[in-house]
Task: structure prediction
Amino acid sequence: MPPRVRTVEGSCWSCKERRVICDLTLPTCLKCTKTGRQCDYGAVRLKWTDCVASRGRFAGKKIPLYHPPTLQKNTDHHLMYFENELLPRFNLTNTVPTIDLKILEKDPVLLQSVVAVAYAHAAYRSDDAKALSLQKIQTRNRALKAFREQLMGVQSDQLSGSLFIANVLLCILDGIIEPITESSATHHHLVGGKAILKQWAGVRGVFKMKYELPVLMLSIFTTMDLTHSLLIGDKPYFEASAWAEFGECEPWWGNVKSDDDFLETMAILSQLSTLGAGVRHDNTMVDIGTLLSIQMALEQQANRQQETIKNSTTAAWTAFCSVYRHSASVYLYRALSGLEVDHPLVQQVVASCIEVIGGTELTDKLHHCILFPLLVVASHCVVKAQRSAIRKSLETSSVYLSFESLRSLERFLEQRWLKLDNSPATTQMSWWEYFDEIANVSCLF
Result:
């Protein structure tokens, strides 16, 4: 007697489970229709409990069966991002150096550094930053490896120039885009940059290039080195007189004449930093004559700016220069003269600078490039209304720049204000104690 057939090949899953003959009607068989059951003819049936597969090769594993495809971006994409998205954030003008792809193809050190910086910034801005973190770390490690291998190899003047630019990019990566708080990577990059400059015989020729990438990178490094030196009590690499050489070039602040107020202020800041290094490390006292001469130079510039700020075409630039000038005055009073945070002279400068920052003269783009003066002045704010103006300025810059260093700056300021409000001893801290927590972590300008 032949065996009784209870199922039909191709039956729906419901009929198979009940061991009844399915009529194979599509899309729903008649038996399932009559009994109100779900009819499913799928070739493979998976049963999920709390997102865990109960059969098949994924049985017992709580993992998704579908992974959304990851968009793989090639090197050209990162170079375009670097040129069109990142460089404009380090440049006040509309003139951005073009990237020669053919040259970069022959320069793996510079290429890897550009890719690492571009990828890190793009990942930081991405909604899926965590998913991109591993690739970001890998691109940074590749850039560091290529840089160190080249550094240990045979050097030439051309390679020194390439290494210097790569070093500046790594400093931007670790000091601005995503500061590494658990180490002093920023400080080491700056020290390394100085060492490369000493070996680079052709560095003075950079000023003759006018519009090339090396000019932009040299101006960024010179500024980062100066602001870092001011905060830690070190001597900057370039002397004060070197700032005039950036006249009629295309550095990050744009093409200005060699006697422009901004270059004069940066030269004064360089002079102040050199004097501060002696005070910090050698316990020397700056003579009153030197202090008065610097103060007079700053006051003369302020008087000139009072006249030019009335001109609508130059008001924005005048306001920008005045913010840096105010930071020089605060340094003069605090670091070299030893005045306390709440001293009337210090607070007078702070109030004047906050008035400019909260005013209407500064354009948005100029706001994005006053981070160092903002750090200096904002950290000495004792009035809550002044702090509100600072928060507003930082909020505007944070949206555009998308740098982690701004978050570090915000955290530092909030903690400093809290201590100023609750600990009177904070006002008596020396300049270098005051900025110790942020000095070796971030590069700001």
User: Anything to note?
Assistant: The two ends are 94 Å apart (CA to CA). The first helix runs from residue 13 to 18. Strands lie at 48-49, 52-53. The CA atoms of residues 368 and 400 lie 8 Å apart.
